[in-house]
Amino acid sequence: MKAFQNLTWKEAEARIKGGLVVILPVGSTEAHGLHLPLATDVMISEEMAWRAAVKLQARQIDALVLPPIAYSVTDFSKAFSGTISIKQETATAMIRDICSSLYEQGVKLVVIANSHLEPLHIQSINAAIEQVKTASGHRVAFPDKRKRRWAEKLTEEFRRGDCHAGAYETSLVMVARPELVREAVRQQLEPVTISIAEKIREGARSFIEAGGKDAYFGNPREASCEEGESSYQALSDMLVEAVMEALAQRAT
Ligand SMILES: [Zn+2]
Predict the structure, then answer these.
(1) In the chain, what are the helix, strand and coil shares in percent, each to the nearest 5?
(2) What global pTM score does this model have?
(3) Span from the CA of 42 to the centroid of ligand 1 (angstroms)
(4) Per residue in 194-203, pLDDT tens?
(5) CATH for 235
(6) Domain enclosing residue 15, as ranges
(7) Ligand 1 geometric centre to CA of 9 (Å)
(8) Residues with C-beta atoms within 5 A of ion ligand 1
(9) Which residue in 194, 193, 191 sits closest to 220, CA to CA?
(10) Is 108 in contact with 64 (CB distance < 8 Å)?
(11) Distance 52 CA to ligand 1 centre (A)
(12) CA 118–ligand 1 middle distance (angstroms)
């Protein structure tokens, strides 16, 4: 059993009393190229969360995965059909309220597993964490995979910043939900070697402005299950390390 929502309330009560760690997968509903589903970030966050829960259980830390957040600030891909963007304050309020509700019940630690990397979205998470801390003193663990410490364990394409629906994310979906990758389309896609991170620094405010007319960057043709497996290994280790550090800090 790894899903929090499949517990009964009595089971939840017992697990929380025993010192439960919960992982909140955070994704988005947004365009991911011509070959990946809108739910790409949700699937990636859930898969890394599942794997981290298994690793934590193996270390005798009781951990469960929460129902995911599938709506976020996605202004960069607003021009593409199917993308659902919410306001920054809505995103912050939702994450803050979920964490506060869990801490009020006595959950030991909430950790955020995030895969959507738009700057305003990351800001909405950090603001939520600040508000929880100010209101209750509780700390939410949030390893930000863009930080060098974690990014250096991920792929070169990810670090270059052309990481939206390219080889990195495509490989992760190929492992988690292979049936949802439009394989024939993927094999025809030309690489888009543009760093979104760099374009954002130069002032781009949308994927179109950054040069991604089909809502992907990087090279989806280079994706493989092997790469996906090794990225999940790094992403789940990142969550486990963040939990271990937060628990150690809590003990002092
Ligand atoms: Zn994504």
Answers:
(1) 55, 10, 35
(2) 0.95
(3) 8
(4) 888 888 889 9
(5) 3.40.50.10310
(6) 4-251
(7) 33
(8) 40-41
(9) 191
(10) no
(11) 19
(12) 9
